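Reviewer comment 2.1 asked that we show a complete input and output for one of the modelled complexes. We chose the manganese (II) ion case, as it is the one discussed in the main text.
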Amino acid sequence: MTINWTPLADLVETHDRFLITTHVRPDGDALGSEVGMAGLLRQKGKDVRVVNASPTPPRYDFLDPDGSLFEHYGHAVHASDLADREVAIILDLSAWGQLAEMAEFLRAFPGRRVVIDHHVSQDDMGATFFKDTTAEATGILVQSAVNALRGTLTREVAIGLMTAIAMDTGWFRHPSTRPRTMRAVAELMEAGADVSAIYRDLFERNTVGRLRLMGRTLNGLKTEREGRIAWAGISLVDLKETGSIPPDSEDLVDYTVSLRGVEVGMLLIEQARGGVKVSLRSRNGLDCSRLAESLGGGGHKAAAGATVPGTMEEVEAKALAAVRQALDSAPIVAQP
Ligand SMILES: [Mn+2]
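Response of the prediction step:
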């Protein structure tokens, strides 16, 4: 799928003050794409603010070394501070629910809304969409926008986009990885993104809290149907007792689908604001996004999630029932 970037080029040409944002609990694709888009717009002489509904997880500090890029909505910056923004560029999401506290502001936003994303749409959002649901990451779409708008892949932009693509492809392991991914990666390496340095920044800066949380989570792994379903839970007590923070649970769901013979992996994470976040992964072609939608969320075929109201026990029972039903009704599809 090739995106026509001309409408974006026109918007950039005719406006000066931009807001860039992304989803709650931002991941590498979300934050790295913001770095890339902010770099492109600043090269065009634009006034850019990057404001997110969630704080930046510490592991992504290297994307904003002097702490001047990412702003936290409702904390250092409020709706009134953003009244002068003319265009809002929303990255890596297509549902109001993913914007949490910023949804209200963006719904009422009087300027132009732009969505650049690779998720299947849930909401119309009254936006101009630049979307490719076959893209391995939003970062690869931003990279193509940089090229289409004749921007420069500076080292900073390249590091952001490399992080985005590497994280959303599971460091080039997921089936979404294809020759064009590696061509894009080659271009980013030539622009100064050091894959091995980025890997060290992301994966070799674990805290004791994160490692303890990982241990406790794996220790509590449960399986069913000879390991076809594997799941684990992280409660607020687990976070407290291991000395970890909520972002430390990122990627732990991937261990559930590392089990031999597993078809669906699930991680349940109790949320401080109430409810339980359910992360789903599949390994047999089962459609996780449909499963997540049945729980009030969404995502991709192989990776999706939902935040479900209720206690851990209630949500575990509900999510497991949905997984069992999906497995029972799904045709067995050969793994690609
Ligand atoms: Mn993404």
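The pocket of manganese (II) ion is lined by residues 29, 92, 118, 137-138, 168 (CB under 6 Å). We note this here for comparison with the apo prediction described in Section 3.2.
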